[in-house]
Amino acid sequence: MLILWQKIQSFWYGIQANTGLFWLLVGVLTLIAIILLAMILRSPPHKNTSKAVAIRKNLDNDTSFVPVNADKDTAELFLPLADKLIAEATQREGVSQELLQKIQDKMPESLEDVLLAIKKIKGSYADDLRRIISDEKLMLLYARILGQADYQPYTLAAAWRECPDPTVLPAFVELLASRDKAVQMSAVRLLTALNEPQCLVYLASALLQPHRYVPARVAEVLVALGESAAWLLCHLLPEISAENKPLVLSVLSQMQPGYPLEQVINCLSDNDAQVRRAAAATLGDANALIATPDLCKAAADENWAVRSAVAKALGQIAEPAAMLFLQRLAEDEIWIVSINAREALRRIESRNRIEGPA
Q1: Alpha helix (H) ranges present in 267-334?
Q2: Between the CA atoms of 278, 282, 284 and 286, what dihedral angle is there, to the nearest 10 degrees?
Q3: What is the rounded distance in angstroms from the CA atom of residue 176 to the CA atom of residue 276?
Q4: What is the CATH number of the domain that holds 295?
Q5: Phi, psi of 148 (to 5 degrees)
Q6: For the purposes of burial, counting CB atoms within 10 Å of the CB of 169, is it exposed (0-12), middle (13-18) or buried (19 or more)?
Q7: How do residues 243-280 score in pLDDT, each as one tens digit?
Q8: 235 shares its domain with 295
Q9: HSE of 140 in the Cβ direction (CA atoms, 13 Å)?
Q10: CA–CA separation, 211 and 107 (whole Å)
Q11: How far apart are CA 133 and CA 111, in angstroms?
């Protein structure tokens, strides 16, 4: 090693003695250093290079990534279902299998899209959409989630107007039996908006099942349906059990006068005192002048609650011919009967004073 070191020293001293050779060696070494430095600066670290390669590899293998195809209609990628239906209607006479599948995949929310498309288009394409509402049972599916914030009864009402389907009416009425109050109220709004007489039979049946349906909710719908509902209830009265007649009569009492009163008047002779009392109250609310003779006869009823209702009804009708019977009731030993009779007499006397000068 000592001999090798002595040779290196001797070589270095020789170069130093030769100035030209010395500077040539320095230049070569400097050039080599510059080339190595440039190569280091241009090449990224090995770690970062691997990361970039991994990212590119992941993107290439990611099947969920769908690049935009410039050759594909952008409507197929980005437009909502309703707009796709509207766009397709300009090119086709019926709904394509592809869009039908989208409707099925999005049920029941797709009902709103279909209705919007029907509103915007006409012709056979719109008829095709109406058939889809019926065939795919979109209204029934939508009704099952009625009452939630995003599912409003007015969508179903609009669907009914476009595609009236009597087979869905029992399901709509059945919503009144829900234990969820929000669903009950949505059902009331739906059935009221429909204003469909075909619902009456189902509603009448529901009214006679107070253990399943809330009578007040059913009554709201019946009252909203008006005269047609009143006529049906009057027609059914003879067939309704004494247990349910007071409930039916109370619904009739909330309706506008104009329905036939014969069956209600007949209830004044029913064996059940609750039925007789409810009949008297209903006739009074209906201002049934024709019922005055029967009410006067009922003023002698053995049940004080019936006599009290009769006195009030006669006061509502305010027929002077009833004054003699009211005077007797004014002396009744039951205080509420007496009070109602005296109030009825005051109403009749007040009416006579007003109408007398005329």
Answers
A1: 273-285, 292-298, 304-317, 323-329
A2: 180
A3: 29
A4: 1.25.10.10
A5: -75, 160
A6: buried
A7: 889 999 999 998 888 888 999 999 999 999 999 999 99
A8: no
A9: 12
A10: 33
A11: 7
Distance CA 265, CA 250 (A): 14
pLDDT digits (tens, 9 = 90+) for 197-253: 999 999 989 988 888 988 889 999 999 888 888 998 888 888 888 888 999 999 999
How many domains is the chain built from?
2
Residue with tokens 């009731």: 329
Cis peptide preceding 108, ω within 30 of 0:
yes
Q: Which two tokens stand for residue 256?
A: 């506008």
Token reading at 351: 């009416």
d(CA 31, CA 34): 5
Quickly tell me which residue has 């609310």 as its tokens.
285
Is the residue at 237 inside a domain? yes
Per-residue pLDDT averaged across 104-119, rounded? 90
Tell me the residue range of the domain where 324 lies: 291-358
